Amino acid sequence: MPFCTNCGTQVQAGIKFCGNCGNAMQGGTPAKKTNTPLIITIVAVVLIIVIALLRCGNSISVHDPDYGYYDESTFTDPRDGKTYNTVKIGYQTWMVENLNYAASGSICYNNKPANCNEYGRLYDWFTAKAACPSGWHLPTSEEWGVLIAAVGGDETAGKYLKATSGWSNYGNGLDRYGFTALPGGCYNGDNFVNAGNYGLWWSSSENTSLEEDFEYGFVGGIFFLSMGYNYEKVIQDINEHGTLGISVRCLKD
Fold first, then answer.
1. Is the pLDDT of residue 16 over 50?
2. Average pLDDT, stretch 16-38?
3. For residue 50, what pLDDT is reported?
4. I want to staple 240 with a disulfide (CB 3.0 to 4.6 A). Which of 52, 98, 173, 221 is the partner?
């Protein structure tokens, strides 16, 4: 004689229901008990896991807090109406594009507005110090250092911060953190050079140590950051007089 799979009671062959608990029997054999709530729970858990994996796989470079993520909103400069995306890396929030505010003393590469749209404007240091909009500022060399440390250090920071297109000779980066660094080149007072090859960005920090250099004598100047198509690192350098025309990235206060 068969047994009820729900309560274990022995039942006669051929009956349709267990006399003890009412469990349905099929063709004289115990019917398999279906636990509908358990199945629904399992399906729901599987769906949650799948959705989580898909989100992680599609957005690790811009949404995972370990890598940085795009802010949901954009920032519009009230001075000229230009809109910038922003990215948060660690606890710092940066503009994703180079600044393109037409401050007196700034210039477009080769004097072409299309280059301003692509690379932002080029600023000497004295103009750059006051170029960022209210609520934003020109980063110090220490703040640049915080960014570099957050993305793994200066030896590979260029690779992770450079845009995935726009750099010459296969020098594009991975743009893992959404910073999208572009090679805006520079203006040296006489010529525009190195757009597509090198990106340079001012800091607000002066080198006041005046360390003696055997080749150049006593060297002071302004710290700036550079990335190149032909190397993966980030280099911190000094411009002696602050007159070089290079890019600006604004950091949120």
1. no
2. 50
3. 41
4. 221
Residue 6 maps to a domain: no
The string of DSSP codes covering 14-35 is T-SB-TTT--BEETTEEPPPP-
Which band of pLDDT confidence, cut at 50, 70 and 90, is reported for residue 56? very low
Task: Please give the Cα distance from 192 to 111 (Å, whole number).
Answer: 9
- Distance, in Å, from the CA atom of 79 to the CA atom of 69, rounded to the nearest integer, reads 26
Structural domain span for residue 138: 69-252
Token pair 């805006």 is found at: 184
Whether 2 is covered by a domain: the verdict is no
C-beta of residue 235 within 8 angstroms of C-beta of residue 154: yes
Q: In whole angstroms, what is the distance from residue 231 CA to residue 186 CA?
A: 18
88 burial class (0-12, 13-18, 19+ CB within 10 angstroms)? middle
36 located within any domain = no
Quote the pLDDT of residue 41: 57
Residue 55 has a pLDDT of 41
Q: What's the pLDDT score for residue 21?
A: 54
The answer to the question of residue 51 being in a domain is no
Cβ proximity of 216 and 133 under 8 Å: no
Number of domains into which the chain is organized: 1
* Alpha carbons 62 and 175: distance in angstroms, whole number: 9
